[in-house]
Amino acid sequence: MPNILIQDLTAIINGTSRNGAKYDTVHVETLITTDQPIPQNLNWYVPNGCSVPKEISDLFKANHIEMYPQTEENILKGTEDILEQAKSNSLPGTEIDASKLLLRAVMKLSSLVPVEGTQNCYIVSYDYKIYPAQDNSFEFKVVLPFDGLTMINAKSLVQTTVTAPVNSKINSVKSYAADLSTNKEVTQETVVQTTTKRPIVTFQYKQDPIFVINYNY
Asked: Hey, which of 9, 81, 126, 183 has its CA 20 to 30 A from 90?
């Protein structure tokens, strides 16, 4: 399995919700450099850019379903028994399985693009929409490295740079990088205020945390 040397994710969030839309838009570019070629059968599903109805978006949030790149196996894990769950009147189990299937419905197979003239260097890009929570805040979440990639030594590095919308305010309490297994914070974000009134949030770490950037207007 290929090991990460660096995974550098850059996201640009546009404040389309401030111009009449029900959501903000996100464009993500990820540079991945590994110590060996990524197998052709290792693929990730990424948001397909469609507008997710608020009811489904709320269902995702209620069941902690996140729209970041994942393998199809991980997205659909545990859904094989959805019919049995429904027949046995297990509403919670059926709801979780249905949420995962709905997530798969709004994801597409990513294009892993090798960078010409390089060795084991790739680009993954995708676009999607973020809908506000009940408190009108927005959250961008991603887990690095992607499913199937590992970090094994001090040379491995994952980092995230997010350019937030114009006039947005970063919530430093709700923005964090946490270990997935313990949910404990592992590193703090750095926030830079720019002359264009777009805050830039960065994280850098040598393990595999979930990165969360929370903002409002």
From this structure: 183
Mean pLDDT of 198-216: 84
Asked, as a colleague might, if the bond just before 199 is cis with ω within 30 of 0, I would say: no
Span 20-70, pLDDT tens digits: 999 999 999 999 999 999 988 888 999 998 888 888 988 998 998 989 999
**Separation of alpha carbons 93 and 90, rounded Å:** 5
CA neighbours closer than 13 Å in the CB half-sphere of residue 214: 12
**How far, in Å, CA of 57 to CA of 132, rounded?**
10
**CATH 2.60.40, the chain: domain bounds:** 4-44+111-216
Three-class secondary structure assignment of 91-135? HHHHHHHHHHHHHHHCEEECCCEECCCCCCEEEEEEEEEECCCCC
Task: Provide the pLDDT for residue 188.
Answer: 79
Check if CATH label 1.10.150 holds for domain 4-44+111-216.
no
Residue 58: in which H helix or E strand, if any? helix 54-62
Phi, psi (degrees; rounded to nearest 5) at 42 = -95, 105
Neighbours of 130 (CB within 10 A): 21
Q: What is the pLDDT of residues 110-124, one digit of tens each?
A: 988 899 999 999 999
